[in-house]
Write a structure and sequence with these properties.
2 copies of one chain form a homodimer. The first copy, chain A, has 469 residues and is mainly alpha-helical. Helix content of chain A is 65%, strand content 7%. The first copy, chain A, is elongated.
Chain lengths: 469, 469
């Protein structure tokens, strides 16, 4: 059953104090690593350390990989090399590799000399693939048989392996001598088939595979798309290297999505548990973008100065009153533009991430967004005009003001929508993550440019009334 | 292998024209439903319809469930009841239920009378559970055995079932006579154990289950958290009703995340393929929020009028020049506040969705966000002051202006951070989806309130210089 988290958190301090480690292990027997990791992550470092020390190496290792990097980094730093090496040794290769993020490169390198050579070599092999590629998080522990093995052989093979040997036995891969993937057997098929029938006659031959160099997020999407629980990874010469399993893929997708969401909010950095991030980390993830946007926003000041600023120093003139009035609607108009832009950029970025939209669809997308923006812009324009001109419910301002607002709004919103749809697709084309075109980015962009639209519209409308500014 | 999408899209029109349906089936033999659905979704309705008509009912049914609702709705509308009923009959119950979203309630109800009673009853049973709950998307097709069955019995059972009968045979559930879940067998365990050993001796007893009423997103998170490929669903009396499988869970998570992302961008509505949405649908998803925010933004006008507006109509006074100067920095300050607020609300909302943060953590979160905001605010404040006051690189404005900007920025950003962190957590507490506190929402909120802070700071600073406004 699932343990109540808070209850577990409260119990940890006592467990950390407990002398008799077997008592601790017994008390935590039915607690799953994921739940224990959660509780440790929400407790003081010392407490977590105290508990881990009392667990058997295997449980401890599995808890460690479930912890957010920041936390496990802090814990591992307190552990002797022998312990960590032991963990690396116990864990499946893909998890062991995950633990690497919690270690300094030097220490990890040093540990590779401590653990059994075979494991060290496998880790080195996996590390030789590009960062965040299929090769780096696949496991080499899959069941492989030869095309001439019988179903009875296959079942024997599965019977006589120990539990840790394979990540999954539900898929059995049929490989040629030179490790080319010939076909796939599901355990179900093996059981159904005649015991003496040959693998090559039972296997399914039409298999979806991924190259070892494919980016992890793409691999994860492939698994999710077809609902597979594992996908074979091939090297450039078509030899099977390993498998990527759905649970790893799930985690990768989740992290990728977290990074996209945060980036859309103007926050950069890897997916990390919020609570495990230091204040410094939090500032580091936000300040750079904010400063860039802040400096970009200076441009709004320049625009205002260009259109109005000069007069401010000159002798107060009639136009000054008009200017003051125009100013009243600045936040309203750039706000609406920013919000409309955020909607569009968020929609398009997500559609790109899910593959619903490809960059080659740019024309269809812009056509759609243009029409949508026109409809929305006119609606807001009418509401705006009413608010500005009407007495009682409105501000009963002169007609030329409400006309300005009414005309400026559709223009600004159509502009915002164009920017919000073109920029993400352009980014995708250029191989930049479209999520960089975040809501804050678009609204900042639209603030300054929207002002120009507003005042240009104003000038033309006012000119009609013989008002200069 | 995976088919090249564009190539397939280009081939569809010819296939739709093709007279001989067997030729079409043969040509599409190695194309997976997911890929075919993708291609159909990117083609004209008639073409998609033409292709589906030529496929065997089973393939067609599976393609249909892979299509976005909007598209399948349009296609199903063109199909005779007999065909659709046949599809409902073929599909696993959870998929059949999914097809329901593409049918009018009346038509679906009518179809239930056409399909076999047993299926109709199962669908009605599933429908009796709350909307979007585990009960609605579980499948009742799981392998169940009695505690006294031997491993040999279990293997026979699996051998003698046809392919469609069970969603998965990798998990075998041991149920008591009254359908209480006693334990779990993995197919691997069954093969490993002695053929004559009893289920009750081999089974694992510590199992994580979910109630039929649990919201689908929570069920999906549970599966993802523990990396299960299926989880048993129990009724309120602890009897096992069915299982939810990981591939369904994956899809639910993806849709839930899409809805969150869009909502954070101020777009409401269910996850749907962007390209399959009509213009009207797109407007419907965006306009309501925009109008609400737009009207809320009117408040900025009132604030400006309160602080400045009145003077605009009065005789131009010295303070008018000051006011004009103050106005220059309005977009800069509210922009910075909005961006900082978006960062915070996005971070917190995501952390809440992932369970990294619970509403009971509110105090820790606010303390953290306050310190972060203070650091960021002071940094931007200094940059702002420099820009305002410095000659050449800046606008060489009088000191009282740069002081105003320098003091106002930290206040506004701390305010934005507090709002951006408190609102999502409050929403969560109140059972509202925190994602409603979208970036546009927060920035609109901060626009008006930020202005008040700005002018209040300005008044105090100016007062120090004997300037009234």
């Amino acid at each position: 059953m699932r343990t109540d988290e808070q209850a577990l958190v409260d119990r940890l301090p006592t467990l950390a104090q407990e002398e008799d480690k077997y008592k601790v292990r017994e008390m935590l027997e039915n607690v799953r690593p994921e739940d224990l990791a959660d509780a440790i992550q929400r407790s003081e470092l010392e407490i977590g350390l105290g508990v881990l020390r009392k667990l058997d190496a295997e449980t401890a290792a599995y808890v460690l990989v479930e912890l957010p990097d920041e936390t496990s980094r802090a814990l591992v730093a307190e552990m002797p090399d022998t312990t960590v090496a032991h963990y690396l040794d116990i864990l499946p290769m893909d998890d062991a590799l995950g633990l690497r993020d919690s270690l300094s490169p030097e220490r990890f390198e040093a540990l590779l000399h401590v653990i059994p050579d075979q494991d060290a070599q496998e880790i080195r092999r996996l590390l030789s693939y590009p960062e965040d590629s299929a090769g780096q998080f696949m496991t080499e522990d899959f069941v492989m048989v030869s095309p001439l093995d019988t179903m009875a052989d296959v079942l024997d093979l599965i019977r006589n392996t120990n539990d840790e040997e394979f990540e999954t036995v539900n898929y059995i891969y049929v490989l040629s001598e030179d490790r080319h993937l010939l076909g796939l057997l599901t355990l179900k098929r093996v059981i159904r088939a005649q015991p003496n029938s040959l693998a090559r006659d039972v296997m399914v031959e039409d298999i979806i595979t991924v190259p070892a160099t494919m980016p992890e997020e793409e691999v994860a999407r492939t698994l999710a798309r077809y609902g597979f629980s594992a996908v074979p990874v091939l090297d450039e010469r078509g030899r099977m290297l390993g498998i990527v399993t759905a649970d790893d893929a799930q985690q990768i997708l989740e992290e990728a999505q977290t990074e996209d969401v945060l980036m859309l909010g103007g926050v950069t950095g890897d997916a990390e548990n919020y609570m495990s991030l230091s204040l410094f980390e939090l500032v580091k993830r936000r300040l750079p973008w904010l400063v860039v946007l802040f400096i970009a926003e200076f441009f709004t000041g320049s625009v205002l100065r260009y259109y109005l600023g000069r007069d401010a120093d000159a002798d107060p003139s009639a136009s000054l009153a008009v200017i003051a009035k125009l100013q009243l609607f600045v936040p309203l108009l750039i706000g609406a533009g920013g919000n409309a832009g955020s909607q569009v950029t968020t929609t398009i970025t997500r559609a790109l991430a899910l593959g619903d939209v490809r960059s080659r669809d740019w024309f269809r997308v812009i056509r759609r967004e243009f029409s949508v923006a026109a409809l929305i812009g006119v609606t807001l324009g009418l509401i705006g005009m009413a608010r500005v001109s009407l007495p009682v419910v409105g501000w009963s301002q002169p007609l030329y003001l409400s006309l300005t607002v009414g005309f400026a709004l559709p223009c600004i919103i159509i502009w915002a929508a164009s920017v919000g749809s073109i920029l993400p697709m352009a980014a995708k084309r250029l191989g930049i993550d479209p999520a960089v075109m975040s809501a804050p980015f678009i609204s900042t962009f639209v603030d300054a440019t929207g002002l120009i639209i507003y005042f240009e519209v104003a000038r033309r409308v006012m000119a009609g009334y013989g008002i200069q500014f």
